[in-house]
Amino acid sequence: MTRDAPTPVTVIGLGSMGRALAGAFADAGHPTTVWNRTPAKAAPLVAMGAVHARAVETAVKASPLIITCLTTFEDTRSALKPAAEALSGRALVTLNSGSPAGARAIAAWATGCGARFLAGAVKNVPEAVGAPDTLLYYSGDKTVFDEYEGTLKVLGGDTVHLGAETDLSALYEMAVGAMLLPALAGFFQGAAAVQARGLEASSMVRFAGKWLDMIKSLLPVYATQIDSGDYTDAASSVNLFLAGAAHDRELSKETNVDTAWLAPLHDLVKRAAHAGHGDHSISALTEVLRKSEQRM
Q: Which residue of 1, 35, 90, 190 sits 20 to 30 Å from the alpha carbon of 83, by its own alpha carbon?
């Protein structure tokens, strides 16, 4: 292989995201080997020029760079176990969900097998893989990132190395991902309320998007307040959100939409007020969320 030749890549796991990853590599001209427990999922990729390995060990031996995209770190280890010896000297990059502890465990196992290890996360949907603004972040062996950065950027132009600690990508994956379900549940509640009036959920999409843009603009402000511990600039106070809980109950009665999922959030706001943060910024909820003893 010459210096400028595309790096051969193996992709393990061909769910919707795994297929997108492998397809991006194949489209970019990288010799791509794929493996999945269900062989039929490889067929569309073979049509694109990828090679389907029948055994995971064969797949690992085919490339110096191994990308796994399975559901959990435990699934990754289980899938790779038959190929443990073949991992020696190869770069292993995991792109799956899981806790920081899970990332540390798979890193220890992989390096114990002689692999060079990066943990990573794709912060977008499969359809966005390969786009210039798609974000992926990695943590772990910086030499792996430096060597294969150009290859990894095939998956998304916004490619970041967070640091040498192998669990950082999992930490940020969970920290950032924590916003997803509450935001979606809020949209689904709004959609149900709008439909209760005989209107279409699609009628609120434009306005919801503007609202999310507003929330995005506030994140740097709240982050500064949290990092400094100064919550006195209260454009949106804890008490303001406390008063809003009654509006949610009224909406539930009027539209017959179940808003019970909000009860723990309302309780969190009450706890913040009782802790003396009523007139403080809503970002003071961070102080209530912290437990007295934290262990990483």
A: 1
Number of domain units in the chain = 2
125 in any annotated domain: yes
Tell me if 8 sits within 8 A of 62, measured CB to CB. Answer: yes
54 and 150 share a domain?
yes
Report how far residue 199's alpha carbon sits from residue 203's, in angstroms, rounded to the nearest whole number.
Answer: 7
Interval 170-189: pLDDT, tens: 999 999 999 999 999 999 99
Of 109, 140, 165, which one is at a domain's C-terminal end?
165
Co-location of 183 and 160 in the same domain: no
Residues 23 and 135 in one domain: yes
**CATH number reported for the structural domain that contains residue 32 in this entry:** 3.40.50.720
Residue 100 has pLDDT above 80, yes or no: yes
**195 and 121 fall within a common domain:** no
Of 70-74, 187-191, 232-236, 278-282, the one with minimum mean pLDDT is: 232-236
Q: Is residue 73 a contact partner of residue 103, using CB atoms and an 8 Å limit?
A: yes
CA dihedral 16, 21, 24, 30 (to 10 degrees): -140
The answer to whether 159 touches 133, Cβ cutoff 8 Å, is: no
For the segment 95-108, the average pLDDT, to the nearest whole number, is 95
CB 173 within 8 Å of CB 122: no
Of the candidate ranges 30-34, 134-138, 241-245, the one whose mean pLDDT is the lowest: 241-245
| Residue 97 per-residue DSSP state | -
Tell me the CA distances in angstroms from 247 to 80, 92, 235, one per residue in order. Answer: 52, 51, 19
Residue 105 in contact with residue 73, Cβ under 8 Å? Answer: yes
- Does 161 lie in the same domain as 191? no
- Do 105 and 224 belong to one domain? no
Q: Which residue type occupies 162?
A: L
Closest CA to 16 of 121, 155, 125: 125
Residues 6+ apart with CB under 8 A from 9: 25, 30, 31, 32, 33, 63, 65, 66, 67, 151
